[in-house]
Amino acid sequence: MVTLGFLATIAVGTILLSLPIATEGARATFVEALFTATSATCVTGLVVTDTAVFWSGFGEAVIAVLIQIGGLGVMTLASLLGILLTRRLDLSSRLVAAASTRSVGLGDVRGVLTRVIKIAVVVEGICAVILVARFAITYDMPWGTALWQGAFHAISAYNNAGFSLFSDSLMGFVGDPWVSLPISFAVIVGGIGLPVIAEVARALRARRRPRRWSTHTRITLWMTAVLLVGSTLFFLAAEGDNTATMASLSPGDKILSAFTQAVMPRTAGFNSLDTSQMHHETWLGTIILMFIGAGSAGTAGGIKVTTFAVLGVVIWSELRGEPDANIFDRRIAPATQRQALTVALLGVAIIIVPTLWITATTPGISVAEILFEVTSAFTTTGLSTGITADLPWFNQLALVPLMFVGRLGPITLGAALALRSRQRLYRMPESAPIIG
Amino acid sequence: MVTLGFLATIAVGTILLSLPIATEGARATFVEALFTATSATCVTGLVVTDTAVFWSGFGEAVIAVLIQIGGLGVMTLASLLGILLTRRLDLSSRLVAAASTRSVGLGDVRGVLTRVIKIAVVVEGICAVILVARFAITYDMPWGTALWQGAFHAISAYNNAGFSLFSDSLMGFVGDPWVSLPISFAVIVGGIGLPVIAEVARALRARRRPRRWSTHTRITLWMTAVLLVGSTLFFLAAEGDNTATMASLSPGDKILSAFTQAVMPRTAGFNSLDTSQMHHETWLGTIILMFIGAGSAGTAGGIKVTTFAVLGVVIWSELRGEPDANIFDRRIAPATQRQALTVALLGVAIIIVPTLWITATTPGISVAEILFEVTSAFTTTGLSTGITADLPWFNQLALVPLMFVGRLGPITLGAALALRSRQRLYRMPESAPIIG
Ligand SMILES: [K+]
Ligand SMILES: [K+]
What we know:
436 residues; two-stranded antiparallel ribbon; 15 helices; globular; Cat_transpt (chains A, B); cell membrane (chains A, B); membrane (chains A, B)
């Protein structure tokens, strides 16, 4: 049903974007309209046309609405699945019949939706106000333009969409903290996920100490901090000497741009440095960051930081010879371990297939660029080395289902795996084939 | 101790290859001697010099001996670890005190060594006889030359080393089944691993039906068949139209070269087609095949087909909602599942780091080529897009520990994980963070 809702949104978006009033000049082709509607609804941010130049005000508004529906829709869906999971786990551990637990009541839906919208309004509002003021005052935009630009970028940022009304994304604001930081703030909050935001808000009100927060929240916050600091340092090291990106910036601007660059692969997709000019090792690092993504039940894509952390903890425990995989004084359930493995390895498999296909059918583009673009599409990041607009139409079309699978796949897969569990009627005798 | 043995072999090899009599012309530099000795002992097959032209007869003989020691050494080591594991599992399941099980007796060592040498002599002998006859009769080589060429290539093939005394590897024999097939035969048998060879030999003698073979053997044989057929088809599809490799061949030669090409990434490293001229999608496919490798406790590298199969089965069971991961009517032990995950993901991590490093420090070489070369070094395959000889000396040196880790890492890691198991003194409360 959710899938149908997404498909319907994309269909309506495609029709609206195909209208003559949606574009400035020539009418959009079917592929252009479909690709853009999918990219907006899946909050991916990859584009085949220059958003600022190609689409009219009406077209841009359609895109903004699609982004808002897509982003908040996913957040709501994932949060409801999360509630369902928690309940079911609680119930099953109390040995209550499982039949009644498969449903989430209308009250839950209303509660989650209210909260999702409330947080979105607050965060997008803060971000928009700062942006509008900055655009109007420092950049001398007319107030009407500043308002539209501020609102659009706040929506695009909070929903981790990465669509921009500037042809060069945020590259014109590389040294401006009053643009980079509010957008980064909205991106991080949107990407951290509703369960964590809600719990932190409750905990702060109740003055509950972090030690008593849930494992999920603690993993997410820690991983967010570690990844942000780590990737800021990575980008400084990798791009600091690149004359096409960072080399000419002042030390302060270097750090600001590296931080912005560290925020965006999880999985917002704005860029304040020129992605196409980055070193290839920077691309590889970005590919890994995009694959990891941000928090569960937020607006971001990727396999999610909890999935990554669980895999890391499992490997670490295994190396230390521990029979259990523990994190923050909690033992990770074996089922959760298998889910993480499945989500991560299926993600790798889903990225490999279109990479092979596009490499085989599009001569003249390097494997690194194709892997970057496919990962960006699957993880709904939207960062681009610039090849998407140049791909043949059938390979642009190939990215459409990939964005869709990348948007709904990991969320629903994770939940489906956790919810499904067959009765074990009999067990096979155990076997331990040699590994390695 | 085993690590020391390998290091000592490499040290002696480096010294011998540094001698003036080891080369035809100018004496080998330290990096050339060390790289070649490591590549031979780890049966990797990557080269920084043209083996046929650069080394003298003495140098070639040193390389052959290093290959034989390295290949049989690894086979013996892994087989002994396998015995140790089986025993320990048997004992622990019978609740016998674990203290006495940590050691493998001298009798075991002698038994395994005898078997390892016996099989090597038989398979290398068969391969060598056919090659020598073919080289002498069809290619008009003097018998002395044919004998040396046949013996060297048989040793290099059975030990999955991939060193060749022809500057273009087997490309001169692309259409000759009497060269390609005996070499492929030796490669497959060497790569399938002693436990499987031994069990199949016993089973055939005892006329035991395949259904009663061990899970390890059945997984290995099935995966070998599936991978060989699948990758033959892949190479036919990917390279069939490539004028620089397969396009000009007759249909029969196409199939022969595709089959040879399918055998070599697991992980022998000969090539009868020009690797540097292949399409990039072929490189990607080859990278995946190299990473998987061949059978455990053989002469091949990679994470091994059983590891790959176990991960596949775990994901499949998870998708189907099965609480157990079953294959061939056997339940895969949870510990084995975690071992497979650890070996595979650590393998990915170990490949990513040098790929990033070499990309950052060697401008002008594509990421695809570097990833290919690093994977080839780690999996001890030795296939090359041709960049290794052109890398700066410090990056050639960087491949040396990588070949070493790739050779001993997965084997000893797998065994170490299986042997180590700490007492569980207390358990943390369970927790299930949201995945995906
Ligand atoms: K995005
Ligand atoms: K090899």
